Amino acid sequence: MREPPAPLMRARPVPWPRHVGACLLVLATVGCHDLPTEAMGITGDASTTTDDTGSGETTVVATGSTSQGDATGSTSQGDATGSTSSGLGTTEESGSGSSEDTGEPLPSCGDGLVAAGELCHELGPPIAVAPAPMRIATGDLDLDGATDLVLANPNAPELQVLYGVGDGDFVAPQLLLTAGTAVDDLALGDVTGDGSVDLVLTDDTGARVVSYANDGGGGLFFAGLYPAPLAPLRITLGDVDGDGTPDLVAAGSGTASLMLGNGLAGFLPVQDLALPAGPHRLGLFELDGDGVLDLLTVNGGGGNTTCFLGDGVGLGEGVDHDTAATPEGLAVGDIDEDGFADLVVAHAAGDDVGVLLGDGSGALGAEDLRMVGDDPRAMVLADLDHDGHLDLAIAHTVPGQVALHLGVGDGTFVPGPVHVVEGAAELALAEINGDGVPDLVILRPQSSAVQVLRSAP
Question: Which of 69, 90, 178, 309 could form a disulfide with 316 if both were Cys (CB 3.0 to 4.6 A apart)?
Answer without folding.
Answer: 309
